Amino acid sequence: SGLLKSVKFKSKDNSKYNLIIICTGSNSHLVKTLFNDQSFEYSYGEVSITTAVKHSFIKNNVARQIFLNNEILALLPISNTKTSIVWSVKKDIMNKYKNKNNLFLKKRIKFYTKYFLKKVKFVTGIEYKNLNLLIRKKYYQDRVLLFGDALHVVHPLAGQGFNMVLRDLASLERILKNKINLGLDIGGSEILSEVSNETQPRNFIYSLGIDFLKNCFSFQQKSLKDFRNKIITTLNKNNFVKDILFNLADKGFKF
Fold first, then answer.
1. For 178-221, how does the pLDDT look when each residue is reduced to its tens digit (9 = 90+)?
2. What is the CATH number of domain 42-130?
3. Portions of the chain given CATH number 3.30.9.10
4. Would 28 disulfide with which of 20, 24, 58, 132, CB 3.0-4.6 Å?
């Protein structure tokens, strides 16, 4: 909302707080300082172009991916008249786009989405972000718990980044409510360990799975592309497999 610009602690004495949850993102100086940048990370060599648009009323309950040459454009529903756009572009191609103005990019987005969205109007500006894979090795320490992008960053290909955060939030809320009802210290290492043990294996599997999908869709060799497309076509005809994949994407794994 723009109301909260920054938060500064006069004291870093964690003993004054039951629990501190840091949601400042993967590039936060605070996270890197407290956790000594303990993470696995590498760059995809891509940039995401993100914006939001309004459009004519549609039954907007399906996320879509448009696969272009070395580019992926995702349509993520917000409401029946509003959609979020995430366009993944190789950095060398992005350098060419940067020589153009935003009007050029908006025309390209309208062109790519014309079969799905009508009367498109942009309601937010265009933002750019380098795309990386990040998997945090440690989730907590000394009454401090990392959350959201501070924990994991994945490629937007499968649209699962936000779903991962929501699943983490559901786990955190359930565990903390239970411990509060029992009168336990919610910042204790045993409780934070329980949160970590429940969410970290699931997030690790999802992060590697999304990375595997990203690599599959990055094949340049024709034989590998044909093999990939054949598998996708076969899976698309199998409703049983599709139901399993939809449930995994929506509800996640249960260990």
1. 999 999 999 999 999 999 999 999 999 989 988 888 877 766 66
2. 3.30.9.10
3. 42-130
4. 24
> What tokens appear for 133 in the block?
């894979």
Tokens of 56: 């004519």
pLDDT at 251 over 70: no
CATH 3.40.50.10490 at 15-38+137-218, yes or no: no
The boundaries of every CATH 3.50.50.60 domain in the chain are: 15-38+137-218
Residue 228 CA to residue 214 CA, distance in Å, equals 12
Q: For residues 73 and 173, what is the distance between their CA atoms, to the nearest angstrom?
A: 33
Q: Which of 18, 89, 84, 98 is nearest to 54 (CA)?
A: 84
Distance CA 251, CA 237 (A): 22
CA distances from 218 to 64, 70, 130 (A): 18, 7, 17
Report the helix count and the strand count for the chain, using DSSP H and E. 7, 10
Question: Tell me, what amino acid is at 130?
Answer: N
Q: What is the 3-state secondary structure (H, E, C) of 11-72?
A: CCCHHHCCCEEECCCCCCHHHHHHCCCCEEEEEEEEEEEEEEEECCCCCCCCCEEEEECCEE
